[in-house]
Amino acid sequence: MRPHIVVDLRAQQLRWHSGTVQRCYPVSTARNGPGERNGSLCTPRGRHRIRAKIGAGQPSGAVFVGRRPTGEQYDEALAATAPERDWILTRILWLCGEEPGVNRGGDVDTMRRYIYIHGTPDSEPMGVPASHGCIRMRNADVIDLFDRVDCGTAVEIVAP
């Protein structure tokens, strides 16, 4: 079996499978629940793949804006400057939908919606839907996952 990822929206878990090796990580997906439409702030369902890996070599807590590191390191003082911000930290796995009309193309395009698996402040809760659409992970977990996957790795987002 080829390495792949399953994100379970109900369980708020990400499972990475590679033959007999498996890892399970707690995540936080969209506060608005599942959905594919642009502007919905929902997490898209269905078959995806990792389109790009961004942030290799950056320190844990590195801040990203527009998929570029800003040179800032997340801390409480920085957090206080933007308390409502959905911080993108440490690593980014940019997802691309694989199902035309479901999560690819038109008003449902996962990649054009900038849906990522990414790090978030360790103070943010896991296991609870709270993001603006992306899949948030603990910084140590997203580094671990990032180092295990390649561009093209299959990602299935399910809402059983």
Automatic annotation (TrEMBL):
Pfam families assigned: YkuD
Keyword Transferase among record annotations: yes
Pathway(s) it belongs to: Cell wall biogenesis; peptidoglycan biosynthesis
Gene Ontology MF: a single term: glycosyltransferase activity
Keywords, alphabetical: Cell shape, Cell wall biogenesis/degradation, Glycosyltransferase, Hydrolase, Peptidoglycan synthesis, Transferase
Signal peptide: none
GO CC annotations, alphabetized: extracellular region
A single BP term in Gene Ontology: peptidoglycan-protein cross-linking
Active-site annotation: H118, C134
Stored PROSITE patterns: LD_TPASE
InterPro entries on file: LD-transpeptidase, LD_TPept_cat_dom, Transpep_catalytic_dom
Protein name in the entry: L,D-transpeptidase
Organism of derivation: Abyssibacter profundi
